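Hi all, long-time lurker, first post. I run a small reading group and we've been trying to get comfortable going from sequence to structure in the token notation. Rather than ask abstract questions, I figured I'd post a concrete chain and ask someone more experienced to write out its structure so we can walk through it together at our next meeting. Sequence below, copied exactly:
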Amino acid sequence: MGRKESTVRLFTRDGVPIRVCSRLATAVDTSGEATKGFDPIYRVGRKIDMYKVDFKEALCLFKGKEARLPVIQVIETKNVGVSSSGNLASFLRLAAEADALKNRVSNEKARHHTSALLRNFKLDDKGPLDKLEVFKFVRSWVRAFVPPNLLGSKNTKFFLDNLKFVLGAGKGSSVRLWQVMRRMSVDTVLWLNSSEVAAERVPLVLKQQALAKVVVWLLQNVVWRVITSYFHLTDMSGTRHKLQFYRKKHFHALFNRNLRAFVSDDLLKPLSANKAMDVLSIPDCPGEAKGRLFPKASGGCRLLAAKKNAHANEDDARLLLALLKDRHPEVVDSRGRGLHRGWSKFAKKAKEKAAKIFFVRVDIKNAFDTIKLSKLSEILVNLAKNEMRETAYVHTVRYLDQHGRVFRSRRLSSKRKREYPVPDGCRLLPVASRPIEARRLLKWVERRGRLHTVAISVGRSRGPLRFLKQKGLIQGDTLSSALCDLYYGEMVKSQLEPAMRREVGAGERRLFVRGVDDFAFFSTSKREAERFLRLMEKGFPEYDCFIRPEKTVTNLGGSGASEFSFCGTLIDVENLQTRPDFSSYHGRSVVDSLKFNLRKGMTEETYENLKGIYNKQIQSSLFPFQSDTT
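-- Answer (accepted) --
Happy to help. Here is the structure in token form:
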């Protein structure tokens, strides 16, 4: 008899999942008697701190206050999403099983045994590890140290099966209690069905709550601590929400190698604690940022930073820089609309003349890290002095749609009053305006850029390493993206455009677009495309701007290339068509690109996530540009 085809169905009641059916899962009904002891969608926390690096590989599960307390008291404190209906004193055998686990792992023999288990699996790669090998190690450890009667033999098997989901969940994903306790039953746990428990007539609800607390404690305080004792968890470029597992000793080598390179290249300057306090005491200092090294697929690292407290001027400064960025129309927005408009117009003219299109796409080397802060300061000072009015105005624009929802946006304008278009089906509410001192704000941004300090936490007891950013912009800072666009926009305006300026011949057309570190040039003149390539290969030393030759794509020189990727869009210069570039998703799960909040309605949550992908990567590229040229 053939196996029935597996299906997965998810129903919601007020946004709460009430049933999950598949070949691998039994039903979980949040409204039935079977789960009243705990909240199935309660979030089980996993402690992941990517901004703190601990390189010591040592098994230490019970430490501090927990080492002195009886284990059953620690289990009692675990939250399972509902108010406690009793305590665990009724389950006398639970304390014995939990204490047995504590005694097994709290000696030197356990540490040697764990090290031996690590050597049995393929966990010595210097790059990110295979999660299946990590799971095999954790499974072997659980079987070696967790007493079989703690959860029961069947429940232990189900717990390990469910652990695969926990290891595979992304950094932004929520691990729910029903996902950890899937298929578990109180009927197979001996300490829940002992003669003492039967004599006291312990209700089913309390049994379920006790099992849920033990499962949460076992996951958070035991298994997850084993994982974080030997592996460093981080995300990685190109994988967004996907968690990568590194052996701590290998990540230590990667960390030291890249940090030394940052210092030797004068990107970072080490600061003593006193020197760092002197810098932070300067009035325009943006505050100390928490930094971390973000691994790249190429084997290097990128410095990312996040600030604890934002300065009061940062929101207005971001709006002001966005207004100045509009002075450079070649910049492509994140949704690709600017690329769509420019290419549509260019492709239409090229099709009318039946001209061949030559293209050059180049990639700027270390676009953020090579920015000269002295040159950026010069640009901002000139803008404040020559091209910016003393006062600008922040307009808070609000629209009321036909469903009664209010949409709000903040926009910056050099005029006190301005007319804004009204979308269909909406009504414009009164616009609130307030002035800002634009020139003073630009000068503040200029001074702020030279005072960035970064603190990188290393080790358990050692204080953070502090650095002053001497060159380039900090990725993760609220103003870095806009400043980067402004910096390279001024380079294009002052050096690239004058070198390319000439009278366009009859019937010749060209298009230049850029997005952060990607520059693309299209022309119906081969000579003009060659000139652009020569200029980019030569570089612009005044701005410390050079390209990566290995990433250059062109159809010059008879290479035969007719299609290339630019800012998430595949452009075909022969057929004048475009389509979304999904190559970055090949071999990866869509789960790594989405985050779901099961407290919201599932239909609404799925719609919002997919709409985000549609707006950012598909919207402008779904329609062939040749449709605009016919």
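A couple of things your group might point at:
Residues 204-230 form the longest helix (27 residues).
Confidence is low (pLDDT under 50) at residues 1-34, 598-602, 613-630.
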